[in-house]
Amino acid sequence: MPELPEVETVRRGLSSVVVANTLKQIVVRDRRLRWPIPTDFEDSLVGQTITSIDRRSKYLLFRLGSNRATLLAHLGMTGSFIAYNANDAPALKAHDHVDLVFANGVLLRYNDPRRFGSMHTFRGLDGDQPLLAALGPEPLTDAFHAAYLYEHTRRRTGSIKQAVMDNTLVVGVGNIYANESLFRAGIHPNRPANRISLVRYERLVAEIKAVLAEAIAAGGSTLRDYVNANGEPGAFQLNYFVYGRDGEFCKHCSGVLKLMRHGGRATVLCARCQR
């Protein structure tokens, strides 16, 4: 957490306030993120104009102007970028690690209690950046389709849930949205990935795309820490069929939802609806 819909929501919010604007000042209060923020971070960015903000998996890519560089940011588990008016920003809170101040008066403040997020700069192609090089296709693009998923799971004997959460196979289908997509597709999370037919993969791909699109439209999910670029929570958690509802009744068949674990991750399912 945050997962793809939350990061995409943040990307859209940030794009509306900083694209085509120039970085005037950067204040780094704590460099100790998942990887230390480089000591030349500020000097490499000040004076650069943000030409666009893209997203790759759960990474934000701030495209810079004249030096053709990219600021690569990951929110980790608890990170957030919130936009303020620089002249009216609130008092600093604990874990406000970085401020990006723009010439148009916008201040982006990065807060991260657990410091699992990261910030890097790089030049060149995205595929040459080690953190991006091995990523699979984006789930909301045409590159992710049933035939692709079927072909790339023929030797996977592990569970389908583990497969769709593997970022080298498809990016951004985190725990929440894997739970919801598998329920909607009627597929048991423990079913071996290589034992699922092409027809069932067609439904699963459609449900993954639908769930992620609906979550983005709802501003993502807020369970604890996530807020968008305006400091507002998401609302997709109100639409969950299974995630976080273990012990409750299934909305389809009225059976009781069960809790399982996959690699330490919570999996909630309906044993009647999912086979």
Report on the architecture of this protein.
The chain is globular. It has helices at residues 4-18, 41-45, 130-133, 146-151, 160-164, 175-185, 198-217, and strands at residues 23-28, 50-56, 59-64, 69-74, 80-85, 96-102, 106-111, 118-123, 258-262, 265-269. The mean pLDDT is 95. The chain has seven helices and ten strands. Helix 1 crosses helix 7 (198-217) and helix 6 (175-185) packs across helix 7. With 275 residues, it is an alpha+beta fold.
Shape: globular
Order of helices and strands: HEHEEEEEEEHHHHHEE
Query: Uncertain segments of ≥5 residues (pLDDT<50)?
Result: none
Largest sheet: 4 strands, antiparallel
What are the salient characteristics of this protein?
275 residues, alpha+beta, N-terminal domain of MutM-like DNA repair proteins, Helicase, Ruva Protein, domain 3, 2 domains, 4-stranded antiparallel sheet, 10 strands, 24% helix, globular
Quick structural summary:
Strands 1-6-7-5 form a four-stranded antiparallel sheet, covered by helices on one side. The chain is built from seven helices and ten strands.
